[in-house]
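Troubleshooting entry. The earlier prediction with NAI gave an output that would not parse, so I re-checked the input for stray whitespace and re-submitted. Clean input:
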Amino acid sequence: MISLWDYPDFDAHESVSFFRDEAAGLTAIIAVHSTHLGPAAGGTRLWHYADKGDAVTDALRLSRGMSFKNAMAGLPLGGGKSVILADPGVDKTPALLAAFGRAVDSLGGRYITAEDVGMTDQDMLAIRQETRHVSGLPVGEAAAGGNPGPLTALGVYLGIKEAIARALGKSSAAGVHVAIQGVGSVGGGVARLLAADGARLTLADVDQARAGALARELGADLAAADDILGIEADVLSPCALGAILDEAGIDRLQVPIVAGAANNQLKTPADGDRLTARGILYAPDYVINAGGIINVALEYLGQGDRAEVEARIAQIPERLEAIWAEASQTREAASAVADRMAMRLIGRG
Ligand code: NAI
């Protein structure tokens, strides 16, 4: 049997806790990667894992990613993540959410949870009955918090404009051709913001009706989901799935810029080098997509309203600039430079 320490994704995590509440039907893992900068923050993913080892890998990998994301967003928070192992076809129950809330509470504030795949703001309200270490609750309009999608979209939009300025020397997105993969909560928001600037858009989504409706609304072109990676454009904005930038995917690219919201876009660190070798400017995903975590973090910390969230998101372009400047000096991949900066910030550099 493989021990926790032998998992390839184990990276000196401070703690990994396993929870089981038979009566409530809860099986969960909470991984705390680092509390160097503050309590470990990161959402809860509810997922059916065919192999329990995959759940451990997910918790280890995602919690480390949150350490990097929170550090690079300038937040006083460490990195953590939890996974709830769901049985196929079995729904969340109030008892399960309550048991999970008690699990979070048992860590005494070293871990703060929020939504991720499979969880909603209403679930966070249920968890709130058992612990105060939860964010991403429903909020009023001018407050920090609530649905992070539009704020993630704002950060991605600002990051794309910065990339356009750096790689194409253009001060506006007007007339710039952006191909967007996935037009859900974030990709749809990015498309609307770019369309308002007069960008030329090509949209793709496996949900063709969704892509079609948005294309009609914005006067955009449509591409098949299988084709979007190879579209000739100025920018590819991946806003759907992770791991799309592998050797074959990168070979297909016909863009000078890749900048989008999807988490873990690079399949392996070597794919960052492949982008550099092809002369493609890459916006490291956890830096450009931090708008959502900035939003839920300020909600939890009680450090400001929606205007403050937007002011902090406006700093994303300068963080990208710092990464790109160092990468062009050292001739490294932007992803490698971002990882090194993040490691330094969490005291592991
Ligand atoms: P969403 O579920 O609202 O939208 C994703 C869209 O991608 C859906 O319309 C889906 O049909 C489409 N899609 C799925 N597979 C596809 C494929 N192979 N080709 C084309 N389209 C495909 O999700 P959301 O919230 O917009 O998130 C998008 C990405 O951004 C995800 O990777 C997510 O992890 C990441 N992200 C989201 C944040 C947020 O605040 N919502 C924060 C940070 C990262």
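This one parsed fine. The first strand starts at residue 15 and ends at 21.
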